[in-house]
Amino acid sequence: MSDVVIQIEGLSKQYRLGEVSTGSLHHDLNRWWHRVRGRPDPYLKVTAENRREENKRRSEYVWALRDIHLEVRRGEALGIIGANGAGKSTLLKILSRITAPTVGEARIRGRIGALLEIGTGFHQDLTGRENIFLNGAILGMTRAEIRRKLDEIVEFSGCAAYLDTPVKRYSSGMVVRLGFAVAAHLEPEILIVDEVLAVGDAEFQQKCLGKMSDVASRGRTVLFVSHNLSAIQQLCSSAVLLRAGRLSCGPCDPATAVQTYLRHARAMPARSVRLRRGNFELESVLVTDADGRQLTAPVPHDETHFVEIAFRLDSEDPAFCIGYELFDRNGEVLFVSMSSDAGPQGSPPISSGPNRLRCRLPAYLLNEGEYQIGVIAYYHGATCLVNPHKDDVRIPFSVRLGPGRSPYWNRRRLGALAPLLTWERAPDAPAT
After folding, report:
1. Is the preceding omega at residue 166 within 30 degrees of 0, hence cis?
2. pLDDT tens for residues 122-141?
3. What is the SS3 assignment for 53?
4. Architecture of domain 275-400
């Protein structure tokens, strides 16, 4: 028997922007009749009969996936990477039977467990214990199966003290923990995971990785979507890269797919990063010199440069904070810097209207290589407006080695950082 558990042939998915109907009752009925008979949508064909209609409506349609061919074998851990809007989540929703493809088919052999929207189906007025049974039933677990695994689920979630408390009193992190704990204790032959590492604290993320690694080591198939490129390389045995709905690279070694993805991101021309969230609007993110001129070529590591963020606030709020995470070429966070780090007295004022802040990156800090700046914006103790692990607002830039101060330092050193640290003779040990 073949060990191919997922076989995708010519898979495409098209959505229509705006109104859902075709624009006429006749076309709607014709589309419905074709669907009832198991035939493809007649208005997606480019024929002499409807080419004029197709051309007129072309701007109203968008292809989320185009002509995907892929085979996944039993026991394989496949990473799926790509920019936001590349079609990753659409592909997983088709494989999970949440939505149907427009063209093509996906044949699946085995029971599927999907972690797409963790905590979906939780009832706010029910306790954590009651929601475990409710959510487990939604995910396809029997009552006996849930009862048998209840202690494991509770221990994994870390919510034992709140198990008989209504979920509406849980923090958002606790809800995510409980939702993942239920879904992770399914026993599927195929586990589909979409961006679970974009939420939760560091301890929870490590538990997620450990659980998925455990599933993969038992010979089950894992499909894993994440912007955490380091996790993709750590967990997956192979990977594919999606770009604009098409399969751009793979299946191949995860490191190859990641490097192809990062190479494409660096080659992209400068793009607008305008993003509106509530009363906050992000306008631009730049790497500049001391005079505020934008740097587009690789910056010398022996010169000071700045990360400059321009944004607008509709109303002033002392709880508002903005900053960034610096990522290396593998997607690992090197450090985080926030505008409020120096405290109320040392932090730059942020007013209503336009603001432009910059953060100094000292010379001799970063090693030669490729980096990304991911913007963070939130209100202290409340709402997160921009999350660099979920929002596509990462700005790539490069650092090259300058001439330096020492004739012995003329090549790239190991590590992401290459600081110029002070050395001196140690004082004599005090007499005892």
Report:
1. no
2. 888 899 899 899 888 877 78
3. helix
4. Distorted Sandwich (2.70)
